[in-house]
Amino acid sequence: GLPEVILGGNLYDVKPQSGPYAASRGVVLTYSDGELRSIPPHQSGVNIEGEIRQIRSIQTPGSTNRLIFTRFNEYPVVFE
Length: 80
Known about the structure:
Blueprint: E1 5-7, E2 27-32, E3 35-39, H1 41-44, E4 52-60, E5 64-71, E6 77-79
Antiparallel strand pairs: 1-2, 2-3, 4-5, 5-6
């Protein structure tokens, strides 16, 4: 009954001396047994390449909830 948190990231257009920030493929956090825990990608299904810029939850006709991950210069990724 508690909400989960979904995070995305990565940034490739940085100064050469810094190198790209490319360690995130999306993370799902859940609150369970009094602790905040990360759900592994093979369980959550969130394993997205690229620079995730925005994550939105939408409700489609028929009351289906979907998550849309938009990425810089890439097609969006949609989860049902």
